[in-house]
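hey so i finally got around to running the thing on that chain from the lab meeting. sorry it took forever, my laptop kept dying and i had to restart like 3 times. anyway pasting the input first so we r on the same page abt which one it is
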Amino acid sequence: MPDTHAKLFSPSASERWIKCTASAKVNAELPDSTSSFAEEGTAAHSLCEYKVLKALPVREYDGEDPTKSQYYDAEMEECCSAYCDFVVETYFKAKDPYICIEKKLDLGRWMPEGFGTGDCIIISEGALHIIDFKYGKGVEVSATENTQLMCYALGAVDIFADLYDIDKVVLTIFQPRLGHVDTWECSYDYLISWSENTLTPAVKAILEDKTSYCAGDHCRFCKGKTLCRARAEANLELAKYEFREPPELSDLEVEAVVQKASQLKDWLEGLQAYMEKKALEGYRWNDFKLVHGRSVRKIVKPDEVAKVFLEQGFDPWKPQELKTLTDLEKLMGKKAFGEACGAYVMKPEGKPTLVLRSDKRTEIGPDDLRKSAAEDFADDI
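ok and heres what got predicted. didnt touch it at all, straight out
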């Protein structure tokens, strides 16, 4: 089915499925998810498109006003303006340039039903520029050998190679929230060689179901990473160093541990999240149990507490809000506070947390889980 192939060969995930061909089918079969971060990124891309088309009116902007988005703020305005300035500067430096903004690219020549959208493509005599805007600030993205942008470049080559002589391909990542602008350049021949020797063999292996697993940094956004055995084996191989004293490790081993520490941490956090999710669904682990985590007291009726304090001649306010509970106890005295305001203070149950069965806290039973789920549902209505 066309949609199946499209999910198999996403350019944005190409680094992962090129290096770990088995991950293509795994990710295609698992459900997609969205987040506020993804929605924020989409809003920022729309604002970038709006600004560039206003500065270089090569076509009409046909979207909704991006400044009306719930995610629009001063930071987004500044970041997108900086991107627009960079695009405009690159455009005017090129020789007889032609520019495409948010261009749909057909990648079917290299991967069945493959497609992508280039944020900015500038073609001129001798050079093809691919500029990609990244609004995220969690991971710094490199332009060097960036497979997503190389796929986009191949799509652009299909459109423009007969019209322009392309000698070099220039790939740029523009990531303003990290103050990161990275550019990498390769020859046209190198791009074609990469497509033939790296991209095409990976696509062929996936289509012929002759895939293999390979763990690495590219696992970060894999939907199947939590229960992937190849990733587990790679991390357990690294974890064995964790139980040796530093003097027993060589300098090369120390470097390897530190360099891969973030991968190991991410893997362990993913496993714990998986276990907690199953436990919340009613699964009972042999050596672990769900308990209520730590919680802090909070004032549930601040206006009533403020009224009590004012009646007794105390000032309960710090600028624009009530003082902290601890400060209020110090101000009135802990015993007096308890007598006067104890009814307005509560300590909610902590968030369910998975711990070893040796932990002294009481295990949360099935009835408590159903009650918690019902309360959560009620809050969402």
